[in-house]
Every structure is written in structure tokens, then in C-alpha cells.
């Protein structure tokens, strides 16, 4: 304590210190108000005189102070401050330009992902793995099919060598607008329209691959679960997406064929194209395998393809429209990414979602009603097929037996929609 008093760590109540005469006599001591080691810093007198004028430097530009800066010092200060800011701004600009650049590969992958999301949602499948692989979605085909169309929505091909031959187009146009588009300058004869129809049919039957391609066979077959009256809108949406996946030449051929079939089927002025078969049945039976079939021949292909073609023909205008909501979903996603990259949105707080179509139904049915409708629809299709086979006078007995054998096989595989269910006994069937 004496050392503390001597070195001014403490002092008596009167402020005295420096001696070691410290006694335990009840006297009061205190810590001094100043540090015993370092004196309080005090500015020079010159700075104190100018403090009132220089304190503005804390809140104002250097040029506003009373002291001011020399011109050379001011220019040097400005240069030193501006240089790093310019560098930062330039780097930020370059970084922004780099972030804004979205590669073509990213755009294509966006198309692929959004198509998968929509299709999976429409089909109600947990996964598309067994029906459609990502590699089967060619974004270039989709973008071409959606952007290169005529005023009627038909794909326009840049390479005319991939288009239908001119004589096939002329024949199809003749039938589609019969008799208005019939060339009256040439003499026609009885049965002329049948020969023109046979010419068109021969061309499509000679194609090595169906218009829906072997590659997408499983995809379109899965949609056949959807061809029910209460699921009609869902089936249209699904087929609309699936058809836009086709190579542009295939999609154009399919569009022109379905448009021709639709016009012929609804043309009351069109003469009969077959003596024993109605025009609609003839169209479906003739072109079904040109539209859908698998690479390996199967007995049930005809049943599947006829059902699908009938639906396509009846809803061709809706199905072959460009699915604009897909394009909107892709554009919205890309725009979101661009804005997120330049800081307009906080990516971590936003969730990127595709615009999914919503579906509503007039009436919800029970699972039992669904099963009943599924069976009744199939029974009607089988009955119609049998009737067409029986009434077809152009088929030989051998050909009829072959087709009836296919129906018989279907009866064995699915007995609940087979022959007995439509009132035909097995013995009567073969008679």
C-alpha cells in the first residue's frame, strides 16, 4: 500500500501522494482521477484553435471545410477514392452480365423438366420411368413444333424434302374439301373419289414407321386408360403434350391426316367410299395402324390403335393445338432465374414452381362406378369391332377368322369384357 501511495496509484482524501508514510489510523484514501502511467492525450494548441472549423470534415465533403485542401491534394484524394469504386462497379457489371447469361443447354433442360412435371401430373403416375425417359424428350422438336406453324396451327417445315409429296397433298385436299375442291376442269368418273382415297391410304400404309413412332408407343398406350367419358378433358391435355414431342415432319403428317379424316367423316356430300362399311369405320380401320403400332406385332394392337385414332379424330382440333401454357411456364421460370440472378428476388425465400394446369370434374364417382364404366366402354368397343368384321363383305372367310381369333384372344385375356358379356356364346361366335 505504501508503494501504491508513493507511485500515485492511490492518494489521500486531500490528494496528497509521493511518500510512504502510510499508517493504519483510519485515514481515507482514494484512486486518483487520472491514470498513474499514461497522461490524458491533449491536442496541440494549433489544432484546438482550428477544431471548430475542421469538425465539419466528419459530415461534409473536403471542399466544404474552412481550412480546405490544396488543388493538387484534392485531385489526388478524389482519384484515390474513385479508382477502387470504379473497379468494384466494373467487376459488378461483369458479374451481372455473366449471371444474366442463360445457356441454351439450360433452356432445353427447363423445357424437358417442365414437360415431365406436367405430364406426370396429368397421368397421375408416381414416375414416368416406364413410359417416357428424359432422353426421349427432344426440346428442339418441341420448340420447333410450337413456333413454326401456319395460321391454322399446322407445322411448317423448312426442309420441303421432309414434307408429304405434292401429289399426296393434292389428293388429301381433294378429299377434305369434296366436292368444292374437285378439279372440274378434268373429267371425273364414277368411283373417282374412291381411287383418290385409295391413293392416300396406300401412301400412309407404305410408311415404315407409324406417325406416333415406335419410340412413344408405351406413352400413348398408357393414355388409353384415360379414354373415358368423365376423363375426356384430361386425355385431351395428355395427348396435346405427347403430340408436341413428335418430330416436326411426323407431327405435320399427323395433323394433315386427322384434319382430312375429320372433314371426310363429317361431309354429308361425300359419296360412300365403301359398299359395306360406313365412312367413319372405314377411315379408322384404314389408318389405325398408320398412326399407332408397336415394333413387334401383337394381336391387340388393332384394338388399341382404333380406340386411340377414333379419339384423335374426334378431338383433333384441341389435341393438335400448341400447348401455350407449357411455353408460358418455361418463360416464367427463365424470367424468374434472370431476376433472381441480378438480385431482384431472394432465391432462398422463393420456391421455383412450374405452372401446373388444374382439373375439375362435374361429378365425382365411386370406384365401383368407375369399374362399371370401364367395362361397359370396353364391351361397346368389342361389340362395334365384331359388327364391323361380320358386315365387311370385302373380307374373305380366312381374313375374318384371323380377325375373330384376335377378338377371341382378347376374350381369354379379359373375360369380363369378352364375348359372353355382350351376349355372344362361344359356339355362336365361331358360326
Verbal overview:
Residues 30-57 are annotated as: Disordered. InterPro entries: Rho_GTPase_activation_prot, RhoGAP_dom, WH_DNA-bd_sf. The chain is an all-alpha fold. It has a two-stranded antiparallel ribbon with strand order 1-2. The longest helix has 30 residues, at 71-100. The radius of gyration is 43 Å and the shape is elongated. Helix 4 crosses helix 14. The protein is built from 17 helices and two strands. It has three domains: 1-39, Orthogonal Bundle (Arc Repressor Mutant, subunit A); 105-325, Orthogonal Bundle (Phosphatidylinositol 3-kinase, Chain A), CATH 1.10.555; 371-430.
Features:
431 residues; mainly alpha; Arc Repressor Mutant, subunit A; 1% strand; elongated; WH_DNA-bd_sf; Rho_GTPase_activation_prot; RhoGAP_dom
